[in-house]
């Protein structure tokens, strides 16, 4: 199957001001897609837009939006329409994690996490799914996590959010099969980004991928057609994600909980963070 032709396409990338989102925007622009860059830090988005227009001759449009606010789908659709743009693709990548025992977590921050990682991912998908299906030549990528594949004590809400993203996206994959739209849940494992700046416990021990490796995994899968609804980036991560099916639910959560704790407390757990993020 031929690689996707991104020329004459316009793809929204949320969370494009850093990390995996910025890498997605660069990869798409390199392939000829115009891009709409969404996040809160407009200075970063503008800088990236200038880089992409200069290096790849595409149109790059920065849009500042706080995705923790209700109704981001309509807000973004309004901004896009006001600029006269037609969207053919969407990468729902914006997200952040919270950590620590659930009973100690800040309730407001948890609500923001659910809004960014889940509620507005759904709202933005809903706002654009019809044009995406009608165009039928682009991509809908939702960035999940290897944490989607097992419950994660001390990241209980984050992992549950990502499990939602995985399940939701796989269902959309099925619904979109006849439309030409390629739908994919992309699950990174530990990836070297600003993600860990937000976590009270800091980074995990383990082996990290670069954002570019994660994006490459996603793009390769999409280029192969609409064959799979979901993919995990990195062999070790894929192995960790797949292990769950060999355990009872009880064993899986016991393992996940003890690996997660070891990967931070001892500082010597090697790949123990592999089931995290
Ligand atoms: N890094 C990892 O190990 C890892 C592993 C698995 C999954 N992931 C997932 O990968 C995705 C990208 O994360 P990353 O690793 O690239 O982290 P990152 O460098 O911290 O990037 C997160 C992006 O999300 C945006 N964002 C966060 N809150 C937002 C809000 N309220 N409104 C709008 N945009 C918001 C940030 O932009 P602003 O701050 O400018 O708004 C930023 O562009 C996330 O969904 C994350 O859960 C990451």
Report on this model:
It is an enzyme of class 1 (oxidoreductase). InterPro entries: NAD(P)-bd_dom_sf (IPR036291), SDR_fam (IPR002347). Its EC number is 1.-.-.-. Pfam families: adh_short (PF00106). Keywords: Oxidoreductase. The chain has 277 residues and is α/β, with parallel strands linked by helices. It has a single domain (10-275), classed as Rossmann fold (3-Layer(aba) Sandwich), CATH 3.40.50. The chain contains 8 helices and 7 strands, in the order E-H-E-H-E-H-E-H-E-H-E-H-E-H-H. The protein has helices spanning 19-30, 42-56, 72-82, 107-135, 156-175, 211-223, 235-243, 249-265; strands at residues 10-14, 34-39, 60-64, 89-92, 139-143, 182-187, 230-232. It has a 7-stranded parallel beta sheet with strand order 3-2-1-4-5-6-7, sandwiched between helices. Helix 2 links the parallel strand 2 (34-39) and strand 3 (60-64). The two termini are 32 Å apart. NADP nicotinamide-adenine-dinucleotide phosphate (NAP) binds next to helix 1.
Main sheet makeup: 7 strands, parallel
Named CATH architecture: 3-Layer(aba) Sandwich
CATH topology label:
Rossmann fold
Helix content: 40-55%
Strand tally: 7
| CATH superfamily (homologous) name | NAD(P)-binding Rossmann-like Domain
Across the major sheet, the strand order is: 3-2-1-4-5-6-7
Quick one: CATH class? Alpha Beta
Termini Cα gap: 32 Å
